Amino acid sequence: MTESRRDAIADAAIEIIATEGLRALTHRAIDARLDYPAGSTSYYLRTRQALIEAVVSRLSTRTFVELGADGTTLAPRDADATAGAIAALVVSMAESRPLDHLARYALRIDLVNEPDLHKLITDESPIRQRLLAAAAATLGSVGVPEPHVHAPDLVALVDDLIFDRLTNSKASADPGRVIRAYFRGLVTTRPT
Question: Is 0.90 topped by the overall pTM?
Answer without folding.
Answer: no
